[in-house]
Specification:
Elements: H1 15-29, E1 36-39, H2 46-54, E2 58-63, H3 67-72, H4 74-87, E3 91-99, E4 108-117, E5 120-121, E6 124-128, H5 134-142, H6 145-158, H7 169-191, H8 204-212, E7 216-220, E8 225-229, H9 236-247
Parallel strand pairs: 1-2
Antiparallel strand pairs: 2-6, 3-4, 4-5, 4-6, 7-8
């Protein structure tokens, strides 16, 4: 879902409404699925967390550090510093504690990653309602949002989602919808026609450059249109495989007897 918003509003504004819409759609398709959201500190708002708590949604959200959090994690931070001074190697220690900001409705579990290296201390904090080991939740759940951000970057850079130069807001939103539709099509191409090829995990920019932006001579006759590709085109095998998969009809179904 791509939603264009003014830049002069809070980063989390409307996030709860959009999340509610997505959850409704996902549960309509998969009623028994367990949903967990993850995001950076821009989405860490107590109303969103309260909604997740009351609707059975897990969350792992970044939490901006402050003096209160650092005091609560002083044991892990100090221990990471001592171990770095003893070994000279970067240290990463994890712990958890209960915390409530002054605006929150109640305390919640916070995970601390106490990191210390040659540049000094670098503590990070995450708030969650998901049970589990702090290190696993941080490394295997929270940090994996980097892959999600890579997919967003693909749409922004390779499919021009950031091209919002129209004078009217609605026109820019429509441009964003077109970019999103293009990404869905490319993702479907990766999942189906490119499966098993050397471009099965290629980024959108690579697919555009090597499969879409291909020079050809077009010959139009009374009964057909023929595309003549260069004989030196280096990705002929992949192009042919994609073409055959996209144009193949549904598999035949044998008729039963008796």
């Amino acid at each position: 879902m791509s939603y264009l918003r003014p830049s002069n509003i809070d980063a989390s504004k409307h996030a709860r409404a959009v999340l509610e819409l997505l959850v409704r759609k996902l549960r309509a398709a998969w009623p028994e699925v367990k949903l967990t959201i993850r995001g950076d500190s821009g989405f860490c708002r107590w109303r969103l967390m309260r909604w997740c708590d009351s609707h059975g949604i897990g969350y792992v959200l970044g939490l901006a550090k402050n003096p209160v959090l650092e005091r609560a994690a002083i044991d892990e931070i100090a221990r990471a510093q001592r171990q770095f001074q003893q070994t000279g190697r970067p240290q990463r220690l994890f712990g958890s504690f209960a915390y409530a900001a002054s605006t929150w409705d109640r305390p919640r579990r916070v995970i601390v990653k106490a990191e210390h290296n040659a540049q000094g201390a670098n503590p990070r904090f995450v708030v969650t309602n998901v049970p589990g080991d702090p290190r696993e939740l941080y490394d295997d759940v929270y940090c994996q949002r980097g892959e999600m951000e890579n997919r967003i970057k693909e749409q922004q850079l390779d499919l021009f989602a950031d091209r919002t130069s129209c004078h009217r807001f609605l026109a820019n939103q429509f441009r964003l919808f077109l970019s999103s539709a293009a990404y869905v099509l490319v993702q479907a191409l990766r999942r189906t026609a490119l499966s098993g090829t050397e471009m099965a995990r290629a980024q959108v920019g690579t697919i555009r450059l090597k499969l879409f932006k291909v020079a050809a001579r077009v010959v139009v006759t009374a009964r057909r249109v023929v595309f003549h590709l260069a004989s030196s085109y280096p990705y002929q095998d992949v192009f042919r495989a994609v073409y055959e998969r996209l144009t193949a009809g549904p598999p035949a179904v044998a008729a039963g007897t008796g």
